[in-house]
Specification:
The structure holds two protein chains of two kinds. Chain A has helices at residues 44-51, 74-82, 99-110, 115-128, 144-155, 174-191, 202-208, 226-231, 235-242, 248-254, 258-263, and strands at 4-15, 18-29, 33-37, 59-64, 67-68, 84-87, 162-166, 194-199, 211-216, 219-224. Chain A is of the alpha/beta class. Chain A has a six-stranded mixed beta sheet with strand order 6-7-8-3-9-10, with helices on both faces. A four-stranded antiparallel beta sheet of chain A has the order 2-1-4-5, with helices on one face. Chain B has four helices and six strands. Classes of the chains: A alpha/beta, B alpha/beta.
């Protein structure tokens, strides 16, 4: 089995004293695509922000590329962030720059490469995501899918060892979503990039993932191959994987304080 | 004729074969040392003005896109597509070239000999 690129060891994250992630353990193996699944409020996006060193954790430890994130100095953390790439949900492009300049930005900021080399690298990255002919466009001129692809080109500008995707399919039509999935697969298979994909889109997750982890209300529910999740008899896993209308997730929403909220002191 | 570039250990050997220049690159080439490879390759091309440049990548386990960009610059410098051959590629390097669709820019062969004969 390959070494872990990232180890999440008993990690807890608190907001206002409440655990939004509760003693989570998971390994991301080198070269694999791991999908972190969960509904709204499951803690999956918080998990991503912790793994990229964006926010600190309150308990446990995260070891990224062999080093504890908590023990890193600011400059070591900056080095770590340079060795990973993140595709944010919105693409997070700078609207005042062309697509090409957006992709070139990390190269200009973090390397001493000559402009000739950067120019070729930008063209290669844009070709990888199918946007080379749109290099001179401004982000406002791009569709949602194109913005996401431009964001991906920027995320891979520095040839990261690990790529994090935050809801890569969100807001995309099925065809564009499948194209992005194929890009994730290609980058993973052909470049050996380790990928962590946070998503609630099951079709996409089943297309791309080698392994899956399901979180619910900040707790670890299950980890396994896509087939193992499909075969699970756990009612919560089955409801999430198959999108069932009946099950623990919907029961939870139905129960609670609705009646007392409506009727208050009248009952 | 055989010579060893004094500029970098990334190029382990250089020899002429007719109009072709054959160089072997070794090690991992990434953002940190690709400018060194760039300087050495551009210098070789300027000094020898080869009609064909054959780069043996057998001992290159990893090459990032900055290194690939340097190889593209070599094509620009030599003159036209197909006149820079890459031989003995490791799977990961080959994968990067494939995914970036650079197989029309470089001549990709299994061995140096194949590159010399084409």
């Amino acid at each position: 089995m390959p070494d872990p690129a990232i180890r999440v060891i008993d990690v807890t994250k608190l907001y206002d004293g409440r655990a939004v992630l509760d003693r989570i353990c998971l390994d991301v193996l080198q070269g694999e695509t791991l999908a972190i699944l969960g509904g709204s409020g499951s803690g999956k996006s918080t998990m991503l922000r912790l793994m990229i060193g964006n926010i600190p954790y309150d308990g446990g430890d995260i070891v990224g590329l062999g080093r504890s994130l908590a023990s890193m100095t600011e400059s070591e953390l900056a080095d770590y962030r340079r060795s990973i790439g993140v595709l944010f949900q919105s693409g997070a492009l700078f609207n005042s720059m062309t697509v090409a300049d957006n992709v070139a930005l990390p190269l200009r900021e973090h390397t001493d490469l000559p402009e000739e080399t950067i120019d070729i690298m930008v063209k290669i990255k844009l070709e990888l995501v199918g946007l080379r002919e749109h290099a001179d466009k401004m982000p406002a001129q791009l569709s949602g899918g194109m913005k996401k692809r431009a964001g991906l080109a920027r995320a891979i500008a520095l040839d990261p060892k690990i790529l994090f995707y935050d809801e890569p399919s969100a807001g995309l039509d099925p065809v564009t979503s499948a194209e992005i999935d194929q890009l994730i697969i290609d980058l993973n298979h052909k470049l050996g990039v380790t990928s962590v994909v946070v998503t609630h889109e099951m079709d996409s997750a089943f297309r791309i993932a080698d392994r899956m982890v399901l979180l619910d209300r900040g707790k670890f529910i299950i980890s396994g191959t896509p087939q193992q999740l499909k075969d699970s008899t756990d009612p919560l896993v089955r409801q999430f994987v198959y999108g069932l209308t009946e099950g623990p997730l919907t029961d939870r929403r139905r129960s609670g304080t609705y009646e007392s909220d409506l009727l208050g002191d009248y009952i | 004729m055989s010579e060893r570039t004094i500029r970098t250990n990334l190029i382990s050997s250089v020899r002429k074969n007719g109009d072709a220049l054959v160089a072997s690159i070794i090690g991992e080439v990434d953002l940190g040392n690709s400018p060194v490879l760039r300087a050495a390759l551009m210098d070789l091309i300027a000094r020898h003005a080869p009609k064909k440049l054959i780069l043996n990548l057998r001992h290159v386990q990893y090459m990032d896109s900055s290194a690939i960009a340097v190889l593209v610059e070599a094509v620009r410098k030599v003159g036209k597509p197909g006149q820079v051959a890459l031989t003995d590629l490791q799977p990961r390097v080959k994968g990067l070239l494939e995914i970036a669709r650079l197989d029309t820019i470089f001549q990709i062969t299994g061995t140096e000999q194949e590159a010399l004969e084409k």
